[in-house]
Amino acid sequence: MQATEITRRNAAERRRDTLARLGAERDVWVSTAHPDHGPHQVPLWFLWDGRAVWMCTGAASATARNVREEPRIRLSLPDTFDVVLLQGEVEAYPAGDVPTDAADAFTAKFGWDPRTEQGSFLYLRVEPTTVRAWRGEPELRGRVIMRDGAWLG
């Protein structure tokens, strides 16, 4: 196995790359926890609106149940080398109450509109309070690129 040299990015470069990935990717790992049922992790489609992540899940799902009890959440993009972790709190919207612009953008991205489904769905909005991003060990130092909802660098 050949090692690949990693060029260490500064905070501004990490922010730029993270925002590009949030705008382009479609899947995110969603980690929640419930005081009685413990941790739960599931992949969901997501939309980045420039400020927050929007996801949608069944209203009776373990994810929905967990965020109703404990709104703190962690999200991660599905790459173990180019790591992006987001933390925040969920704002939950039943499909009938979701802001139209967010639901329309979600539908445009995925070609699926939960508002038209027979089942009950819950939209989840997470505005990150903390973002960590790194590529390999050389970037572990300085991996926090957002703290308390403010981008660093």
UniProtKB/TrEMBL annotation:
Keyword Oxidoreductase applies: yes
A Pfam family the protein falls into: PNPOx_N
Protein's UniProt keywords contain Oxidoreductase: yes
Name of the protein described by the UniProt record: Pyridoxamine 5'-phosphate oxidase family protein
Pyridoxamine 5'-phosphate oxidase N-terminal domain ranges (all copies): 25-134
Single GO MF annotation: oxidoreductase activity, acting on the CH-CH group of donors
Native source species: Streptomyces liliifuscus
Keywords on record: Oxidoreductase
SUPFAM superfamilies noted in UniProt: FMN-binding split barrel
GO cellular component: cytosol
